[in-house]
Specification:
This is Peptide methionine sulfoxide reductase MsrA. The protein is α+β, with helices and mostly antiparallel strands and 246 residues long. It has one domain (60-209, 219-245): 2-Layer Sandwich (Peptide Methionine Sulfoxide Reductase, Chain A), CATH 3.30.1060. It has helices at 10-20, 70-77, 100-103, 125-136, 162-178, 205-208, 213-229, 241-245, and strands at 24-27, 30-33, 61-67, 83-91, 111-118, 144-145, 148-149, 155-159, 188-191, 195-197. The strands form 3 sheets. It has a 6-stranded mixed sheet, with helices on one face. Strands 1-2 form a two-stranded antiparallel ribbon. A hairpin with a 2-residue loop joins strand 1 and strand 2. The chain is globular, with a radius of gyration of 17 Å. The relative contact order is 0.23. Mean pLDDT is 86; it is low at 5-40.
């Protein structure tokens, strides 16, 4: 049984039930519970990177982000224009331990991650970073996000090129210098990490399970924050992993 289905604290579940009583509205292909933002973590308005990687006239590129449970990270990036594919998986450890059962123990070195394949002519790496630090998660929480704790839920960027690593380092320094958060950024910047796709039942989990309490409370508000803070980058219909295989 997936532990996330019953992982909400009692107080959180109570708040969720009060929120759900307010009704529901449609968002994309799923159900967004009305007034859910009242109990969700607030997104942070942050400046765009001062420097960005070149855009246009390039082949699709890859970026790997870890920001807590991969259901929400994947769900957000699936709604970003220019993202061609977003796959939940594991990064930071060995191929032999890249399974949900093993990673959940917290001792494999892996983080739940999402590999984002994107068209740099439509969305830049810098824009993906801005969404990561603003909407996807709280980069000041060490080894936890929401109800999930452990190094497998750490905030991390797995650079796929020296240019990505350099840019991520510069952006973290920029945000820290601007004091946009009340606490320091703890995001780990890692490179040379492999990426191993997660099990099929984890893919497109947000879209397929909008009524799941964990999704409704922790993740659907992130998609709404994306729409609200980045309207020019938001797309209503998500790009799904399973559709790309059909």
């Amino acid at each position: 049984m997936n532990t996330r289905l019953t992982s909400l604290p009692v107080a959180s579940r109570r708040t969720l039930l009060q929120t759900l009583a307010g009704g529901s509205v449609l968002l994309g292909g799923g159900l967004l519970w009305q007034r859910l933002a009242l109990s969700a973590e607030e997104a942070v308005r942050i400046p765009a990177p001062a420097l960005d990687l070149p855009a246009g006239g390039q082949a699709p590129q890859r970026a790997i982000f870890a920001g807590g449970c991969f259901w929400g990270v994947q769900g957000v990036y699936q709604h970003v224009k220019g993202v061609l594919r977003a796959v939940s998986g594991y990064s930071g450890g060995a191929a032999t331990t890249a399974s949900y059962e093993q990673v959940s123990r917290g001792n494999t070195g892996h983080a739940e991650s999402v590999e984002v394949t994107f068209d740099p002519a439509q969305v830049s790496y810098g824009a993906l970073l801005q969404i990561f630090f603003s909407v996807v998660h709280d980069p000041t929480q060490l080894n936890r996000q929401g109800p999930d704790t452990g190094t497998q839920y750490r905030s991390a960027i797995f650079a796929t090129s020296p240019a990505q690593l350099k840019m991520a380092q510069a952006y973290v320094a920029q945000l820290d210098a601007a004091h946009v958060y009340p606490k320091p950024i703890v995001t780990r910047l890692e490179d040379r990490a492999g990426f191993y796709p997660a099990e099929t039942y984890h893919q497109d989990f947000m879209t397929e399970n909008p009524g799941n309490p964990y999704i409704a409370f922790n993740d659907l508000p992130k998609v709404e924050n994306l729409r609200r803070l980045f309207p020019d980058r938001y797309r209503r219909e998500p790009v799904l992993v399973k559709q790309s295989h059909s």
